[in-house]
Amino acid sequence: MMNRWQFVRRLAPLMAMMALVLAACGREDLSTLNPQGPVAEEQFGLMKTAIIIMGIVVVVVFALALYVIIRFRRRSGDKTIPKQVEGSHKLEVIWTVIPIILLVILAVPTLQSVFNLSKDYSNDPDAVKVIVTSHQYWWEFEYPELGIKTAQELVIPTGKTIAIEAKTADVIHSFWVPSLAGKIDTNPSGNENHMYFSAPKEGVYLGKCAELCGPSHGLMDFKVKSVDGAAFDRWAAAIKEPVALPSDPAIAEVFQSKCLVCHAIGDLGVQAYPNLSGIASRNSVGGILVNVEADDKQYKHEDTVYNNLYNWIKDPEAVKPGNLMSNRYELTEDELEGIAQYLSELTLDYE
Amino acid sequence: MAHAHAVKRYSGFMDWLTTVDHKKIGILYLIAGGFFFLVGGLEAILIRIQLWAPQNDFVGADTYNELITMHGTTMIFLAAMPLLFAFMNAVVPLQIGARDVAFPFVNSLGFWTFFFGGLLLNVSWIVGDVPDAGWTAYAPLAGTTYSNDHGMDYYVLGLQIAGIGTLIGGINFLVTIINMRAPGMTFMRMPLFTWTAFITSALILFAFPALTVGLAALMFDRLFSANFFDPTAGGNAVLWEHIFWIFGHPEVYILILPAFGIISEVISTFSRKRLFGYSSMVFATILIGFLGFMVWAHHMFTTGLGPVANALFSIATMLIAVPTGIKIFNWLFTMWGGSIKFTSANLYAVGFVPTFVMGGVTGVMLASAPADFQYHDTYFVVAHFHYVIVGGLVLGIFAGLHYWWPKMFGRVLNETLGKITFWTFFIGFHLTFFIQHFLGLLGMPRRIWQYLDGIGFNEMNMISTVGALLMGVGTILFLMNVVVTMAKPKNAPADPWEDGRTLEWTIPSPPPEYNFAQTPLVRGYDAYWKEKMEGHKGMTPAEPIGPIHMPSPSILPFFMGVGLFVAGFGFMYAPDWGHIGALKTGHFIGIIGLATTLLCMVLRSMIDDHGFHIEEDEILKDLGGKA
């Protein structure tokens, strides 16, 4: 039987090959097999170790099974009674001990990672602290040290550790950015969770809700946008600047009386629902309607930012069934167009 | 004659409503479980049709959540468990040389409570308020604040009623196996299916009360304004997760252990060899049952229990792989050196081995908590548990159906159709679920009504749907087999496979009402095989022929079930049905329902029914008529 060192030596090239094969799998903004940050990489390493060990088990069992069902198949008419074997003490020991050894090989890095990934960076001065609050069906991101409250798009500086405190305002959701880190559940008050991750490379990473939370559970996407440090500082300054109301006084009046009773913009309005500052610079509207240029529309959920805003405000229930904006207001066609136009111009200049 | 009153022997429909005979109750479980399997299967097909294309609108988002909830709940509680109880009822008393279970009346009660609980749960579809918080019903989503129609009430009440049935069944089989084994059948001479039924019953005894407590607490939250799981009022949502999974994890071992038992019987019989490593197999089963209670928080790795808890539960979960692996190797070595015949039953059993191993290894992958932070709540988990439940349990059930059908119904299922069904279902199964591993790893969460176009999920979901449709075809083929077979004459011999090793093959197919004319004397493990190898035609009797005492049939269990069913409705709709005087109408109806059940219990306690005897002449006639 192979000893442990031979086992590892023969495994190294296999592991390298696996890394190559698996790395080709999946989008770099979404796949757990294509990690873009150190936490996801650590988890991917564990996945590879496990797949290789389990692959060996599967190959051994399949080979044995295949041999047995071919070699000992009853020939037609054969009436012989085979030798009745009670068992084999030696074999029982072998197939108890070897699996235990294989499990130890998986358990050691597992335990290391369990403790490594549980590190709490909340009080680390170098980390960027973000409080994530999940709602039905949107994500609230607060940067307490920077005095910022925003929604749906988590802008972060590249390379810095992001210290997340995660909780929910209603039911249990789960905060998951597969290409950057594993998920953490958002529990009601009393069970807040902590996790951390970082994104060394610039990019927009897709975030998903990963705990059944109602009809629009599958539509509760969010984004993590990693930008270089200077851009992040510019964003943090820009998002706090006061925002002018719509220039048309009639639209401004409707906006204030129907929208700002729930939403906030600049230093106006109510912070209960998604903050609208810089909404036109975000990757999507409502987390799910992706903003693209007019001639770049490929899929049903993609449109210009104006059209996305228009469609969302016109009938939120059609976009995200069960969401809390449905049936809360009535707008004329002019008011709807005016507000959509106004919001589609609320960009932030920071990149 | 010993009795002052006439002996009640019903026939036809009344026979089935009043039976306390384990063989008939087994058939009742089979029919009801089979029916709910079709309901759950239809729900699965609808789910897969919704998911075959991105942003599909075949069903609405609300309906989708209802479908996934009911699919899981129905399949686990109303299909898989009852089908396992069908086999335990049909087979265990025969395997231990007994004439019935220890408590026949309670056995019937177990069936009817399961039946009416399942009926209550599925009536939700007709009413339109369907449970929609997942089969796991996490708080606060499952509470009245976020689920304010009656859907979750059907879940809470339907499952509590059905759960009574399961608990009753578990207790019954524990006592039966401990107390009613034939002379000479020590524990270590019991067939492995009986052993797994025994351990499973112990798991049921300890796990189902946890579910009952959780459901009762949720019921109090929903119906009577309690706050167990409402954090805004001092309760805790994570508490529900713990209580549910302390039940939920042993539950999946309750599902799989009897299937392991079936596989042991079928592989051994069709290899013409005794089970390799019997004592290891028994020990491994016990270890799996025990460890099954130590791992529940592996469903909660992302809940935030902290690194120490996650570390301990990771290790404990990995450990379960060891006894499971022991079983796999023992099955393979049972076949090694044997003479393997690929009947339909054995195709399912042999197909089980590699399939279950695939499910088991993804289980070990999931056991590593930090990696699970990525896998959890994705299609990777969906793939894993369908591999072990469908690829494990359901293949085991099909194996058992083909193997024991002649003993239950006196006819052998058509072998050609059986083989076609196997391949259709087996290929369809792998097509459906293998690809889901990749969907999960590529970033597809579970329980999502729609997925976006352009992120690489389209083709894989389409393939998965095609596989599901194939499984549907396989199921229909099986049903056709049943219909075709039931039209055949009832002429299966006592030992239709000719290589029967255990006691059920020593009596006619189907057995007479009293099973054994004379309780057999067991002289070793694989009691019947031992006699065969020594040149005997059958078992040595352990007693002379004499009158056999039988339990009387009773309609009371049926009405106890009805009472609970009515009570469930009453309590559920109390807020909506106005008042009768000072009392809410709903509560009034609830009380009437509970009173019906209580009255039946009182009648049972007060009326002294000593059963009846089957006399020698009837027994001798049966023996003369059939070999």
Automatic annotation (TrEMBL), chain A:
Bilayer-spanning residue ranges: 50-70, 91-111
Enzyme class: translocase
Domain annotation Cytochrome c: ranges: 246-347
GO annotation terms (biological process): ATP synthesis coupled electron transport
GO molecular function: copper ion binding; cytochrome-c oxidase activity; heme binding; oxidoreductase activity
Compartments where found: Cell membrane; Membrane
Protein name listed in UniProt: Cytochrome c oxidase subunit 2
Species annotation: Paenibacillus agaridevorans
